[in-house]
């Protein structure tokens, strides 16, 4: 039942927020905060429980084989935990920023969070698609109503991109449903049963493309990324935070949960292309980030670059890379989320995001300066902070599969340095052209930052609990892909690393 | 006591943490006490550990490993946070903690009046902690953490006075250029793990020696990538361009990070991975050649600078070139010996320069100084001692023993050659020339400007201590033919291979020593003569000399080259593609659908005539298709 609560509590909290606004417009945020706090506690409890203790399966529309199936493994638990944590941060970051239609704002915010949680927990493809839509529409409204100057354009673009690719995925889901039904006589959307479907290579490739396209748009990977700079830039802070921190993760989660296990053999053929796209995203995103003048756009493009590591690692089909992907998902959520909160704080104070008008704010805002520096360093993958673990493991794992791609992706370590120090320079360092003296981070903002800093440092120095938690999921994933891999491609390095050193020594010429 | 090894890096880290969290609220005296005190305690701990380590006898005292915790453990990848102490890391730790403490003490006075006093010490402490992590790391991944950590602190401290945009530029340049080297190092780590299955440094070395034959392609490639990391941090060709600009930071930072410690991290790294380099003679030769080329190139540039700190910066590049040369010819202990002595005299030179700059009210240009000998006698004498040590004045200075060891071994090593020796000896001449040009311009001649501030005891004590070490430091390693005991060399051979002389070359050591001594003294006399006679001014005013002067002044135009080839195209590409060319595809689709929509709307105009026309046309086309197909 716990899994249901994880979805119901934010949704109900959102409804309550909406309703209490009529009594007092200051109340919705407290309702939202309380709901997310309870949600976070539940998510922590869930993460501490033994695995697979609480799956739920009840029929929903039995005529069509649709059921409500919730289940959680290490991967989804971590992502649910991230959702609850960033959800709480999002509510806290919107505290003073949103003063218009607050009830409806928190309703949308919490509904989107419920949708994200549902995406991470559903194991019925129809239900999965349902939640996929649930998170989309509130997000659209968040941008369209509470966004900045160009919000209508950005929200429409966001909607069209996600909706068009989502529909392709839905077609693929239906096709899978019918193909499986035809071959087995049992029509169902149950993921666990669909896993065994045998598909012709062409069908597998087509279906995989349907799923993958939706996830690549969400991730986003170049060349499907261009909705993201607009959406992130125009969204209110809390919106940017859950866009970057959570919605992008659903794309990665989709790849790990559905694309890889369902279409293992097609993935094998497609992997070189996907990995190349990953490398292109890393480098192109970094280049674009460096060129922007709008601070939020800059950070948005850094997401493209960071999620390139995820794509690269997910398709490398190597244990180290997969672990790296998980770590990168968590840390990118925290570090980029924190940067968006900081920039949101700046915009709220100064009403601009233009780097030509910013600068030299360190003396006026030492706490913001310190946090900005730290998360910029996280963004460039400084060891000791979590992002380093993710990127290093991805590159290390990919190197065992394709040294060339790994070396090319490593150039991203340099380009990320270029844009990160540029962000620092144009916000807190240099001259202060307008002579701004805004107030430093408030107690509320400082506690948000403190929580995020502690997490990112902890993940950088003691990441093992995360790896222990996802180990079964990763091992399973690796198992599922066995037939997909031609023996020499993976077994070389993977076996090598688990062999005793003597054996290694003999093998290498 | 060895079990307390972790406290050495932990103390500065703790200091940094306390200062970062509460520094703004602490009084300056407390901030300074925490900053200098944590490093001082760390130095004491290092001393105690050293006594224990050396005292533990030659049998068990080769190395000591302390594992703190397992960083991560997945799929056969199990790097741990572990410290490794041997003769090499011990020498590094002692020099780092001791010199750092002196510079911190100096800074407590030097930085008085700076609005970010506690931030300065927080960043300096973080640096010392990272540097100690780097040299004590028992695992390449932890070494990489320290490696990047010192890069971060270097970036933070170069840009310490962040309001000036050019300081920010210098800081970013340093960070990005060294990051290029760091990336090469990261790729080396991927390669090592993929082929050897571990990142534990000692195990990597053991396995490499077992698995890779002499001169194998993998060993060479790995060694070259590690060299890439080393040239970045140590500001050697072709990544040397960041160091002269790094002088934008406060002078104690230049003394600590950009002279005494961080820039020698590359030397340490190569010494630490000497097994790999021994397996790859081509890479080792590259180290020697890079060192020789860099020492000459930087020596020439140092000769024409106006800014006293830039002279010292080029001098640092040049002296690290000597260390690389030593590494490249297999003179491992000599490289470490010169590292140690260089840390003493170069820190002293920078600290002296800091006193001068403060006395001149932030003036860096040596041509606007002069005659400070009488104004600041203590600074003058200590600076002169350090300069003599840098110029390797024979017999009395420590620099003579350390540099002469390199010059001599560049020739007499099995890997050495007369060319490397010639480069080294010519570099020694350059060193004398630029060093005493600096001394003459700054301290001798007519007084151009009165000193407005004299250093107090917290700045004077480090000067004196370092001056003593710049002279007496050589005593730890006096060559046998001069009647001494090379104690440091003997100690270091516990961890490093001993020097192998080529048969037949190792005969005239004494002659070579006399010759290099003469070169050193000759250089000093020559520059004194040149400057006094006005000949120097005369030649620098002729047009070809002016062009050459500008060329050397700019550091051989490397900056322009890199701007042209890398920086500007990248910035240009980012600028013209700001609106994202890929987005045009999608906006194009949007534009097309709007056009199509308008077109279709145009047909819906309510006029019967056009409907009839459309029906007729449609019918005609359908009939036509039916008939002809």
What would you note in describing this structure?
The complex is a heterodimer of chains A (509) and B (629). Chain A has 509 residues and is mostly helical. Chain A has a domain at 270-488. Chain A is 75% helix and 2% strand. Chain A is built from 20 helices and two strands. In chain A, helix 3 runs parallel beside helix 13 and helix 5 runs antiparallel to helix 6. The longest helix of chain A has 34 residues, at 151-184. Chain B is mostly helical and 629 residues long. Helices cover 73% and strands 2% of the residues of chain B. A two-stranded antiparallel ribbon of chain B has the order 1-2. In chain B, helix 2 runs parallel beside helix 5 and helix 16 (332-359) runs antiparallel to helix 18 (377-390). Chain B starts with 6 loop residues before the first helix and ends with a helix. The chains are: A mainly alpha (509), B mainly alpha (629). At the A-B interface, helix 11, helix 13, helix 14, helix 15 and helix 16 of A face helix 6, helix 7, helix 8, helix 26 and helix 27 of B.
Note the main attributes of this structure.
heterodimer; A: 509 residues; mainly alpha; two-stranded antiparallel sheet; 2% strand; B: 629 residues; 28 helices; globular
Topology:
The complex is a heterodimer of chains A (509) and B (629).
Chain A: H1 2-20, H2 28-48, E1 56-61, E2 66-70, H3 74-93, H4 102-121, H5 125-146, H6 151-184, H7 191-194, H8 201-218, H9 227-234, H10 237-262, H11 264-291, H12 295-314, H13 319-350, H14 366-379, H15 386-401, H16 403-427, H17 443-461, H18 464-480, H19 487-498, H20 501-507
Antiparallel strand pairs in A: 1-2
Helix pairs in contact in A: 1-2, 1-4, 2-3, 2-4, 3-4, 3-10, 3-13, 4-5, 4-10, 5-6, 6-8, 6-9, 8-10, 8-11, 9-10, 9-12, 10-12, 10-13, 11-12, 11-16, 12-13, 12-15, 12-16, 13-14, 13-15, 13-17, 13-18, 14-16, 14-17, 15-16, 15-17
Chain B: H1 7-22, H2 28-55, H3 57-60, E1 63-70, E2 80-86, H4 87-110, H5 117-136, H6 140-158, H7 165-196, H8 201-211, H9 217-233, H10 242-245, H11 251-260, H12 265-272, H13 274-279, H14 281-302, H15 308-328, H16 332-359, H17 372-375, H18 377-390, H19 398-412, H20 418-443, H21 457-472, H22 487-492, H23 509-533, H24 535-541, H25 543-553, H26 558-576, H27 581-603, H28 608-628
Antiparallel strand pairs in B: 1-2
Helix pairs in contact in B: 1-2, 1-5, 2-4, 2-5, 4-5, 4-11, 4-16, 4-21, 5-6, 6-7, 6-11, 7-9, 9-12, 9-14, 11-15, 11-16, 14-15, 14-20, 15-16, 15-19, 15-20, 16-18, 16-19, 16-21, 18-20, 18-21, 19-20, 19-23, 20-23
């Amino acid at each position: 039942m716990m899994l249901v609560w994880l979805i119901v509590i934010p949704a109900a909290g959102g409804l309550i927020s909406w309703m209490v606004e009529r009594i007092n417009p200051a109340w919705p945020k407290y309702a939202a905060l309380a709901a997310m706090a309870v949600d976070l506690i539940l998510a922590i409890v869930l993460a501490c429980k033994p695995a697979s203790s609480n799956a739920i399966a009840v029929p929903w529309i039995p005529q069509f084989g649709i059921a409500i199936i919730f289940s959680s493994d290490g991967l989804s638990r971590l992502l649910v935990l991230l959702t609850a944590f960033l959800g709480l941060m999002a509510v806290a970051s919107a505290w003073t920023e949103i003063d218009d239609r607050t009830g409806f704002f928190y309703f949308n915010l919490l509904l989107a969070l419920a949708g994200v949680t549902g995406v991470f927990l559903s194991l019925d493809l129809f239900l999965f698609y349902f939640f996929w839509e649930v998170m989309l529409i509130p997000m659209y409204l968040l941008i369209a109503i509470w966004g900045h100057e160009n919000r209508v354009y950005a929200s429409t673009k966001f909607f069209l991109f996600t909706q068009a690719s989502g529909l392709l995925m839905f077609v693929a889901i239906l096709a899978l449903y019918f193909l499986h039904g035809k071959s087995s006589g049992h029509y169902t959307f149950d993921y666990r049963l669909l896993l065994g479907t045998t598909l012709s290579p062409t069908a597998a490739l087509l279906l995989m493309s349907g799923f993958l396209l939706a996830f690549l748009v969400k991730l986003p990977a170049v060349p499907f990324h261009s909705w993201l700079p607009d959406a992130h830039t125009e969204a209110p802070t809390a919106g940017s935070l859950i866009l970057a921190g959570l919605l992008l993760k659903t794309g990665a989660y989709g790849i790990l949960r559905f694309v890889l296990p369902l279409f293992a053999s097609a993935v094998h053929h497609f992997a070189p292309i996907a990995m190349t796209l990953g490398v292109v995203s890393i480098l192109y995103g970094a280049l674009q980030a460096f060129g922007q003048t709008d601070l939020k756009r800059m950070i948005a493009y850094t997401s493209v670059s960071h999620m390139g590591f995820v794509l690269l690692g997910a398709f490398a089909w190597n244990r180290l890379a997969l672990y790296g992907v998980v770590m990168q998902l968590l840390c990118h959520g925290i570090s980029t989320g924190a940067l968006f909160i900081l920039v949101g704080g700046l915009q709220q104070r100064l009403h601009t995001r233009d780097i030509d008008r910013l600068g030299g704010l360190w003396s006026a805002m030492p706490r913001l300066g310190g946090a900005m520096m730290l998360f910029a360093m996280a963004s460039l993958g400084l060891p000791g902070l979590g992002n380093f673990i993710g990127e290093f493991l991805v590159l290390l794992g990919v190197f065992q599969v394709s040294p060339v791609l790994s070396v090319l992706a490593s150039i991203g370590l340099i380009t990320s340095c270029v844009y990160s120090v540029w962000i620092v320079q144009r916000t807190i360092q240099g001259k202060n052209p307008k002579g701004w003296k805004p107030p430093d981070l408030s107690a509320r903002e400082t506690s948000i930052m403190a929580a995020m800093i502690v997490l990112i440092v902890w993940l950088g120095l003691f990441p093992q609990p995360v790896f222990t938690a996802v180990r079964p999921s990763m091992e399973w994933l690796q198992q599922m892909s066995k037939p997909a891999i031609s023996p020499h491609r993976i077994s070389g390095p993977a076996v090598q690393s688990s062999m005793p050193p003597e054996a290694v020594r003999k093998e290498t010429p | 006591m060895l079990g307390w090894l972790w406290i050495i890096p932990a103390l500065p880290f703790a200091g940094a943490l306390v200062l970062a969290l509460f520094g703004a609220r602490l009084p300056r005296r407390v901030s300074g006490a925490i900053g200098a005190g944590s490093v001082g305690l760390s130095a004491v701990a290092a001393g105690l550990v050293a006594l224990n380590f050396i005292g533990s006898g030659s049998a068990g005292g080769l190395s000591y490993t302390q594992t703190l915790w397992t960083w991560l453990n997945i799929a056969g990848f199990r790097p741990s946070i572990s410290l490794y102490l041997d003769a090499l890391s011990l020498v590094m730790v002692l020099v780092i903690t001791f010199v750092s403490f002196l510079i911190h003490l100096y800074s407590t006075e030097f930085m008085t009046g700076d609005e970010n006093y506690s931030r300065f010490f927080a960043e300096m402490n973080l640096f010392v902690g990272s540097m100690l992590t780097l040299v004590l790391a028992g695992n390449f991944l932890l070494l990489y953490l320290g490696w990047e950590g010192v890069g971060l602190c270097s970036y933070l401290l170069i840009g310490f006075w962040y309001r000036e945009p050019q300081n920010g530029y210098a800081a970013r340049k340093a960070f990005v250029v060294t990051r290029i080297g760091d990336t090469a190092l990261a790729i080396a780590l991927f390669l090592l793990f993929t082929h050897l299955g571990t990142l534990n440094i000692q195990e990597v070395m053991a396995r490499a020696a077992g698995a890779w034959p002499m001169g194998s392609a993998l060993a060479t490639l790995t060694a070259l990538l590690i060299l890439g990391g080393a040239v970045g941090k140590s500001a050697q060709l072709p990544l040397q361009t960041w160091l002269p600009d790094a002088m934008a930071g406060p002078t104690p930072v230049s003394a600590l990070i950009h002279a005494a410690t961080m820039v020698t991290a590359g030397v340490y790294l190569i010494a630490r991975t000497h097994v790999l380099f021994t397996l790859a003679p081509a890479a080792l030769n590259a180290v020697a050649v890079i060192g020789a080329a860099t020492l000459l190139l930087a020596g020439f540039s140092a000769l024409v600078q106006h800014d006293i700190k830039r002279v010292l910066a080029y001098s640092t590049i040049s002296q690290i070139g000597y260390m690389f040369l030593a590494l490249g010819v297999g003179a491992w202990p000599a490289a470490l010996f010169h590292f140690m002595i260089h840390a003493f005299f170069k820190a002293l030179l920078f600290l002296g320069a800091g006193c001068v700059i403060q006395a001149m009210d932030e003036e860096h240009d040596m041509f606007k100084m002069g005659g400070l000998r009488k104004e600041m006698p203590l600074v003058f004498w200590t600076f002169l001692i350090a300069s003599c040590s840098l110029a390797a004045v024979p017999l009395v200075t420590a620099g003579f023993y350390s540099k002469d060891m390199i010059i001599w071994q560049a020739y007499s090593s099995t890997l050495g050659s007369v060319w490397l020796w010639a480069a080294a000896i010519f570099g020694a001449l350059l060193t004398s020339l630029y060093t005493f040009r600096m001394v003459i311009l700054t301290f001798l001649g007519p007084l151009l400007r009165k000193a407005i501030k004299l250093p107090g005891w917290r700045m004077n004590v480090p000067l004196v201590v370092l001056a003593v070490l710049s002279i007496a430091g050589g005593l730890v390693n006096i060559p046998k033919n001069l009647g001494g005991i090379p104690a440091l060399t003997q100690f270091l051979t516990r961890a490093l291979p001993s020097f192998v002389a080529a048969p037949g070359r190792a005969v005239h050591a004494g002659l070579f020593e006399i010759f290099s001594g003469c070169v050193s003294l000759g250089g000093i006399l020559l520059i004194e003569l040149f400057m006094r006679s006005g000949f120097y001014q005369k030649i620098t005013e002729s047009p070809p000399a002016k062009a050459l002067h500008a060329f050397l002044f700019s550091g051989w135009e490397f900056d322009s080259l890199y701007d042209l080839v890398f920086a500007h195209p990248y910035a240009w590409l980012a600028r013209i593609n700001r609106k994202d060319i890929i987005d045009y595809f999608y906006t194009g689709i949007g534009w097309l659908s709007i056009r199509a929509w308008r077109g279709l709307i145009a047909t819906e105009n309510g006029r019967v005539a056009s409907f009839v026309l459309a029906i007729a046309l449609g019918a005609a086309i359908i009939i036509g298709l039916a008939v002809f197909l």
